[in-house]
Write a structure and sequence with these properties.
By secondary structure, the protein is mainly α. The protein is built from 29 helices and no strands. The longest helix has 32 residues, at 34-65. Residues 372-593 form the HD-GYP domain. This is HD domain-containing protein. InterPro entries: HD/PDEase_dom, HD_domain, HD_GYP_dom.
Length: 608
């Protein structure tokens, strides 16, 4: 096929498949009938499997065409595919990277600065997104380098003919100023340097002659003037030089147009508080009163403005409470007045309403509550509602793991109570019998919590439209540490730390991940083995959720467990399952027809 026709076909079919996948996912959330819902789930599985196979074939063909020698027309055809995927939110980085690796050297050698600023901006954006998911410094470091690469092309500004390409330079400045302004690691001097540079550059004769009256450019400069206010994060520990610059910025701020919920309000409060211009109580009363007075969002009408106000008030309140209040009791004096309302707002945000953005909002809210809530049950309930339940794929898998592990444990406790001695203050067989319900409750919760870390890499976990790249596999392997990082300072969850960190480590400790986790030394090793086997049972037999694989029947799976018994899997658990026919049958039923019932229960809960 002609390369131009193929690239057009590739772009259209890849994007069509993406939209189709979104449609079949969203269809599941509009069905109440169990029979219709099950039909829709089976249809979704078949369609997604078809998409997976089609996309794999398209990608292999693309790789063949990438061997062709480039000229201006062919390079432009590749570039246009890249640009349309990015601008239509089909920015599938491993696929885009294949194209970038081909055309970037060509545009570098031909000094096409306009194309280069767009390509480097795409690279920077994708790595900044990876940082947002994982918190790993290597991603933000690389994103920063690429944004700086975009900025470097300002030396060729007049040679970049398209204003949509020239604006990338100002967007790059904005994307350096806002995130780095919020960091507390001594980057604020650098942020102010970028701020001075971009304003000076925009006001230069060169830029003014070309774009000074362009509303799009003016809008971005105004956004940068708002972004610089993010340097207020951690300003109380900054150097005197940085504080002085911050005070000057606030006192001479040119865009005082937001109200109590805006960046300027928060920055001015901090500047005035640090200089002793206003009292702590006056600020706290003001912001707390405004949260109390706001109505709850009505999702049947137009919730955007009300929800945005509440979220902004909340963000400012938490930030200022942390700065102003010297003790937990001091902070709670204000938080107690608004906490129930804030929890209600966050837990009632419907799935499907700006899903990814609201997932991030709920995750951040849970982190804010981390040091405030004291009741373990409240914390666990909110962890499930704010994070796990908002990720349907991970939540359903976690429910299945809980159910499988609980079924096995119920029978093992009766015949082999000695396996459960050790953790949870269980010191004897008598303790096991007396605390049976506590043990089962712990196992149920362990199944629910084991994969919480996947909620921070959702787009990779849910990737079912093609084979995962090696880098994506590496990111998947970070999910135990991501989950542990979120709760490791909360000793109320200490009994789950090893489960979260070690459920992918092999029974013999010689395989799996993370490598540094020593399962043999963990007092929870038996419980980890139980969750590991339950995890494997669900993943291997799932034909409704993991559509990139056809799924195995339980008999085939069990033979694999037997084969790797003693190395990957606990031989005592594997043998126990095989020796007990009724248990074997229960697990076989649950991982086949019984799975749909668990799925429907989960989706109904998500839609509440």
């Amino acid at each position: 096929m002609d390369i131009f026709k193929f690239l057009e076909k590739f772009k259209n079919e890849y994007m069509k498949n993406r939209n189709l996948q979104i449609d079949v996912e969203e269809a599941l959330f509009s069905i109440d009938s169990f029979d219709k819902w099950k039909e829709s789930l089976i249809k979704r599985s078949k369609i997604t499997r078809k998409i997976y196979l089609e996309n794999e074939e398209l990608i292999e063909k693309l790789k063949e065409y990438l061997n062709i020698e480039l000229n201006e027309d062919i390079a432009l055809a590749f570039y246009n595919v890249l640009l349309e995927m990015y601008e239509n939110e089909c920015d599938d980085y491993p696929v885009m990277k294949l194209i970038i690796d081909k055309i970037l050297p060509y545009y570098t050698n031909t000094n096409n600065y306009g194309k280069l600023v767009k390509i480097y901006h795409m690279l920077a954006f994708e790595y900044y997104e990876a940082f947002g998911r994982t918190g790993e410094a290597k991603y933000i470091k690389q994103a920063c380098e690429w944004y700086k690469k975009v900025i470097s092309y300002k030396d060729y500004y007049s040679e970049i003919k398209d204003s949509d390409e020239r604006i990338q330079i100002f967007i790059a400045y904005s994307n350096l100023i806002a995130p780095f302004g919020q960091m507390k690691d001594g980057t604020k001097d650098m942020v102010f340097d970028y701020y001075d540079q971009v304003l000076e550059f925009f006001n230069s004769k060169l830029v003014q002659d070309l774009d000074g009256k362009n509303e799009y450019f003016i809008k971005h400069i105004e956004q940068i003037k708002r972004d610089i206010l993010y340097v207020d994060e951690g300003i109380e520990t900054a150097t005197d030089k940085v504080k002085s610059r911050f005070y000057d910025l606030v006192d001479n701020y040119p865009l005082v147009e937001d109200d109590l919920e805006g960046n300027y309000f928060r920055a001015k409060c901090k500047a005035d508080l640090l200089r002793g211009i206003v009292s702590k109580d006056s600020i706290m009363e003001k912001i707390t009163n405004n949260i109390e007075s706001l109505p709850l969002p009505n999702y049947d009408s137009d919730p955007d403005d009300t929800l945005l106000l509440i979220l902004n008030y909340h963000n400012n309140a938490i930030d200022l409470y942390d700065l102003i209040c010297n003790s937990a009791s001091d902070k709670n004096k204000y938080l107690d007045r608004v906490l129930d309302k804030l929890i209600k707002v966050h837990t009632q945000i419907p799935y499907g309403f700006y899903t990814q953005m609201m997932n991030n909002v709920c995750q951040e809210f849970y982190r804010d509550l981390h040091g405030i809530l004291t009741d373990y049950k409240d914390k666990k309930s909110l962890l499930l509602k704010l994070i796990l339940v908002r990720q349907p794929t991970t939540y359903i898998h976690s429910l299945m793991v809980s159910e499988i592990a609980s079924i096995i444990a119920k029978e093992m406790i009766e015949e082999n109570p000695e396996f459960f001695i050790g953790p949870l203050n269980i010191n004897s067989i008598e303790d096991v019998k007396n605390k049976k319900e506590d043990i089962l409750s712990y196992i149920l919760n362990a199944g629910l919590l084991h994969d919480v870390g996947k909620c921070f890499i959702v787009d990779i976990v849910n990737r079912q439209n093609r084979r995962l790249s090696s880098e994506e596999f590496s990111l998947i392997k970070t999910h135990p540490s991501l989950g542990l990082k979120m709760i490791e300072e909360d000793m109320d969850f200490k009994d789950y730390f090893d489960i979260m960190d070690g459920h992918h480590k092999w029974y013999n400790d010689l395989g799996g991940y993370p490598l540094e986790f020593n399962k043999k030394e963990s007092p929870y090793s038996f419980y980890i083995d139980l969750i590991t086997i339950a995890d494997c049972m669900d993943a291997a037999t799932d034909i409704l959720g993991r559509n990139y694989t056809s799924g195995k029947n339980f008999d085939t799976l069990y033979q694999e467990l037997v084969k790797e018994s003693g190395t990957r899997y606990n031989p005592k658990i594997v043998k126990f399952i095989g020796d007990h026919k009724s248990l074997y049958q229960k697990l076989s039923d649950l991982t086949s027809d019984g799975r749909a019932n668990i799925y429907f229960k989960a989706y109904q809960e998500i839609l509440k």
